[in-house]
Write a structure and sequence with these properties.
Chain lengths: ~450, ~325
C-alpha cells in the first residue's frame, strides 16, 4: 500500500511538473510560427526579432519539458510494471507512435530552426518552425489518446489475462479523446498567449522596445480570447461527456452525494465531509448543474451514493469514491482561472478595437500577474481529472492499487522520488532565473553591450 | 517471418540507431572538458552536436516506446528490474539536456564550469550504464516465474558487466572523437584525431577482452561454439581498421568504421539473445522470449504499418539535417549554444 502511495506521488509530482512546461511549448511555438509567417510575408525585420526573442524563452522552457518527458515514458515500466503488462498491448502503441511521429519531428526541425537562421532559406526556416508546431500538437494528440484510454477504455478485448487491442481506429475516435485533446490544445494556446501578453506588458510599462511588444501583445490578446473562450466551450462539452463516461467523477467534482432532482442545482461552494457522505454547508445555484451536465435547465444527475452501490454490484465490493474535496475544489479553481482569463482577454480585445490599449497602465499590470492563471488552470484541471478517476488507473478495468511493480519495494521508490524532487526543484530555480534574465535582457540583448558603450561615449562628451 | 521476429529486429534496429547516433554525441560530451582548452573551443565542441543530439536521443525514446508497444512484458521487466540504473540514466539525461541549452546563457566561468561537469557526467554515465545493462542482458539476470526481476542494483554489477560498461564508454569516446574531427578545423581537429588514436587503442583492447570474457560469462560458447560467426568477426576486423584510417587522416572513413563496428556489435548482442529478450539466470524456462513477452498479433500488425510508413520519412529528414549542417565549425563564427 505504501509503495502504491509513493508511486502515485512520484507520478503526480513528475507529471504536474512536466505539464508546467508542455502547454507553453505547444502554444508558444504556434505563436512564434505566426510571428515568423508575418516576417516572411511582409519582410518586416521587427517580426524576425520578435520571433527570435520569444524563441529564446521557448528554448529555455522546451529544454526542461523535453528532459522531464523522458521520465514520463519510462516510469510506467519502472513503477507500474503490472499496469504495463496489463494494458501495454493497447497503451504502448500510442506512446510508440508519439515518439516516432512527433518527437522526431519536433526535435529534428527545432535543430533546423535554432541553428539554421543563416543556413537555410527563409521559406525552409519557416517550414521548420511550423513542423515543430505540428510536432508538438501531434505529441499532445498521441499522449492524450493514451490518457483517454485510461479515462474511457475502448478498442480492446480482455484476453490472455490482459487488455488486448482489437481496434486501433476505436482508440483514435475515442469520444473522450475528442473532448480532451481540443481542451488541452486550447488551454496550451491560452497559456502561451497569457505568457506573451504578460511579458509584453512588462516591456510596455517600461517603454522598452515598444513596437515589438505592442505587436506581440496584440497577437497574444487576440489568440488569447480565441483560446480561453474555446477552452471553456470544449470544457463544457467534456463535462457533458463525463456524465455518461465517468459519472462518478462528475458527481465527485460537484460534491453531489445523492442523485439530484429533475432540476439540478449546482454547488458553488460546499463543506465536504467525505467520512459521513454529506456536505456540512453548500452555496447553490439553481438549474446550473443540469445545464452543466446536459446543456438544458432540466435533467437528473446521479449521486455518489447511488453510483457507489451500482459499482459494488458491477465490480464487486470496494470503495469507488475518489477524494471528493480535491476533485470538487480543483474543478472550481480551474473554472475560476478560466473565467478570469476570458474576462481579461475580452477586455484586452475591447481596448484594442477601440484603440485604447495605449496608456492603460493598470490593465498591463493585471496582465503581468495573469501569467499565473493558465498555470493554475492547467494544474488543477489535471489533478481533477486524474484524482477524479480514482480508484481506477484504467476506468472499470484496472485499479491503481493493482498496477505497481511487485519487486521494486518502497525503499527504491523513496529514493527516486526524493532524487527527482531534488533535481526538479533545482531545475525550476535555474529555469526561472534564466527566463527572468532573458526577459530583462530583451530582444536587443545581443547589441546591449554595444549600446552601453555608445551611451558611455555620449555621457563623456556632455 | 512472424511479426514477433520482425519486431525483435525492428527494436534491435532502433537501439542500433540510438547507439550509433547518440553514441557520438555522448562521446563528444565526455571529451569536451579535455579537448576544449578554452571557452570558445568548448562551445565549438558543444555546437558540433548542437543541431543533432536531441534528434539522436529520440531514437532511445522510440526504442523504449516500441518495446512497450511490441513487448510489454519486456518493457515491464527491464524497466522495473534495472530500476536504479535507469534512475541514474534519467538523471544524467535530464542534466545533460538542459546543460546544452543553459550553459551559454550566462557569461560566468563558474556557471559554465558547472554545466561542463554536468555535460561530462551526463554523457559518461548513460554510456557506462548501457554497457553494463547490455552485458547483463547477455549474461542473464535473476527473473522469477512471474517475469519479475528479483535481484537488486548490485546484482547488475560484476567484473564482467563493468568491463562491458567500460568498453561502451571507450567505444563512444572514440566514435565522438572521430565525429569531432569531421566537424572542426585546425587545432581542435588535430587534437580530436590524436585523441581518437589514443582512445582507439584502448577501445580495441577492452572490446576484445570483453568479447573474450563473454565466452566464459554468457552462454555464447555453448550456444554457438568457438567460432562466433561472421558478424562479430567482421565487427572486430572493422574496429581494427579504424586505426589505419586515422593514421592516413581519412576521418570520414574512420567514423564510418566506428559506426559499422557499433552496428555489428549491437547485432551480435541481439543475435546472441534471440529469441530471448531477457535471460533468466534463475531458471532458463523463465526467460522472456519474443513469444511470451510480445503484444497480440493485431497490435503488432498495426505497429508494423505505422513503423513502415513513418520510419522512411523520419530517416529522410534526419539525413537531410546532417546534410544542412555538413560544414565544419570555424572559430570566430556565431555560436548558438
Amino acid at each position: 500500500m505504501l509503495q502504491v502511495l509513493l508511486d502515485r506521488w512520484q507520478f503526480g509530482v513528475t507529471t504536474v511538473y512536466h505539464f508546467l512546461f508542455v502547454p507553453l511549448t505547444i502554444g508558444l511555438i504556434f505563436l512564434i510560427a505566426v510571428m515568423e509567417s508575418i516576417y516572411v510575408a511582409s519582410g518586416n525585420e521587427d517580426y524576425k526579432k520578435m520571433a527570435k526573442f520569444w524563441g529564446n524563452l521557448f528554448l529555455i522552457n522546451f529544454a526542461v519539458g523535453v528532459v522531464t518527458g523522458i521520465m514520463q515514458e519510462f516510469q510506467f515500466g519502472m513503477n507500474w510494471s503490472n499496469y504495463s503488462r496489463f494494458v501495454g498491448d493497447v497503451f504502448g502503441a500510442p506512446l510508440a507512435v508519439e515518439a516516432l511521429a512527433a518527437f522526431f519531428l519536433e526535435s529534428t526541425f527545432l535543430g533546423i530552426w535554432v541553428f539554421g537562421w543563416d543556413r537555410v532559406s527563409k521559406r525552409v526556416h519557416l517550414t521548420a518552425v511550423w513542423m515543430v508546431a505540428f510536432g508538438t500538437t501531434l505529441s499532445a494528440f498521441w499522449i492524450l489518446a493514451a490518457n483517454a484510454f485510461m479515462q474511457e477504455p475502448v478498442g480492446y478485448v480482455l484476453r490472455h489475462g490482459r487488455a488486448e487491442m482489437d481496434s486501433f481506429g476505436a482508440l483514435l475516435i475515442n469520444p473522450q479523446l475528442w473532448v480532451e485533446f481540443p481542451h488541452v490544445w486550447f488551454a496550451a494556446l491560452s497559456t502561451a498567449t497569457f505568457f506573451v501578453a504578460g511579458i509584453s506588458a512588462y516591456y510596455i510599462l517600461r517603454g522598452r522596445s515598444k513596437k515589438i511588444f505592442m505587436n506581440s501583445f496584440k497577437i497574444a490578446v487576440s489568440f488569447g480570447l480565441v483560446g480561453s473562450v474555446l477552452v471553456a466551450v470544449v470544457g463544457h462539452e467534456q463535462a457533458q461527456h463525463l456524465v455518461t463516461a465517468q459519472p462518478m467523477k462528475m458527481a465527485a467534482s460537484e460534491a453531489l452525494w445523492n442523485t439530484s432532482a429533475e432540476h439540478a442545482s449546482w454547488n458553488l461552494l460546499a463543506g465536504i465531509d467525505q467520512a459521513s457522505h454529506r456536505n456540512t454547508f453548500q452555496v447553490q445555484v439553481p438549474y446550473a448543474l443540469s445545464i452543466l451536465a446536459y446543456n438544458h435547465p432540466y435533467g437528473k444527475v446521479e449521486g455518489i451514493n447511488q453510483l457507489q452501490a451500482q459499482y459494488v454490484q458491477k465490480y464487486g465490493p470496494g470503495n469507488y469514491i475518489p477524494p471528493v474535496w480535491i476533485t470538487f475544489y480543483t474543478f472550481r479553481i480551474m473554472v475560476l482561472a478560466g473565467v478570469v482569463m476570458i474576462l481579461l482577454a475580452l477586455y484586452g480585445v475591447y481596448l484594442m478595437l477601440r484603440d485604447k490599449l495605449e496608456g492603460h497602465r493598470k490593465y498591463y499590470k493585471w496582465m503581468i500577474w495573469a501569467i499565473a492563471l493558465p498555470y493554475i488552470g492547467n494544474t488543477t484541471g489535471w489533478i481533477m481529472t486524474e484524482i477524479g478517476r480514482q480508484p481506477w488507473a484504467v476506468f472499470g478495468l484496472l485499479k491503481t492499487a493493482n498496477g505497481d511493480s511487485p519487486t521494486v519495494g518502497p525503499a527504491l521508490v523513496w529514493t527516486t522520488l526524493i532524487g527527482f524532487a531534488l533535481v526538479y526543484g533545482i531545475l525550476a530555480v535555474v529555469d526561472v532565473y534564466l527566463l527572468v534574465k532573458n526577459i530583462k535582457m530583451g530582444p536587443d540583448g545581443e547589441d546591449l553591450a554595444h549600446r552601453r558603450a555608445l551611451e558611455d561615449g555620449v555621457g563623456a562628451v556632455i | 517471418m512472424s511479426l514477433d521476429v520482425l519486431w525483435f529486429i525492428l527494436i534491435a534496429v532502433l537501439y542500433t540507431g540510438y547507439f550509433v547516433l547518440e553514441g557520438f554525441d555522448y562521446g563528444v560530451g565526455m571529451l569536451m572538458p579535455f579537448l576544449g582548452k578554452n571557452d570558445e573551443q568548448r562551445r565549438l565542441i558543444i555546437n558540433s552536436i548542437g543541431p543533432f543530439w536531441d534528434g539522436n536521443e529520440v531514437w532511445l525514446l522510440t526504442a523504449g516506446g516500441a518495446t512497450f508497444a511490441a513487448f510489454p512484458n519486456w518493457y515491464a521487466t527491464l524497466f522495473s528490474g534495472f530500476y536504479l540504473a535507469l534512475f541514474l540514466m534519467l538523471l544524467a539525461l535530464i542534466g545533460r539536456g538542459v546543460a546544452f541549452e543553459f550553459r551559454s546563457k550566462v557569461d560566468s566561468q563558474a556557471w559554465r564550469n558547472t554545466w561542463d561537469w554536468v555535460i561530462f557526467t551526463g554523457s559518461l554515465l548513460p554510456a557506462l550504464l548501457w554497457g553494463v545493462a547490455l552485458a547483463n542482458l547477455m549474461q542473464g539476470v535473476p527473473i522469477d516465474a512471474q517475469m519479475n526481476f528479483t535481484g537488486n542494483f548490485f546484482t547488475l554489477l560484476s567484473p564482467y558487466t563493468v568491463v562491458g560498461g567500460l568498453s561502451m564508454v571507450l567505444m563512444f569516446a572514440l566514435h565522438g572523437a572521430l565525429f569531432l574531427s569531421l566537424r572542426t578545423v585546425g587545432e581542435l581537429q588535430v587534437r580530436a584525431r590524436q585523441t581518437a588514436r589514443r582512445v582507439g587503442m584502448w577501445t580495441t583492447i577492452v572490446m576484445f577482452v570483453f568479447v573474450l570474457l563473454s565466452y566464459f560469462f554468457t552462454d555464447m560458447f555453448t550456444k554457438i561454439g568457438v567460432d562466433p560467426g561472421p558478424v562479430p568477426v567482421l565487427a572486430g576486423l572493422v574496429l581494427i581498421s579504424v586505426a589505419f584510417f586515422i593514421r592516413v587522416k581519412k576521418d570520414g572513413w574512420a567514423f564510418a568504421m566506428t559506426s559499422v563496428t557499433i552496428v555489428l556489435s549491437t547485432a551480435t548482442i541481439f543475435l546472441g539473445l534471440f529469441p530471448r529478450v531477457m535471460v533468466s539466470s534463475t531458471n532458463p524456462a523463465w526467460s522472456l522470449t519474443i513469444y511470451n513477452a510480445s503484444s497480440s498479433h493485431y497490435t503488432l500488425t498495426v505497429m508494423t504499418i505505422v513503423a513502415f510508413s513513418l520510419v522512411p520519412i523520419v530517416l529522410a529528414y534526419q539525413i537531410w539535417t546532417y546534410w544542412v549542417f555538413r560544414k565544419r565549425l570555424q572559430p570566430g563564427g556565431h555560436l548558438d549554444y
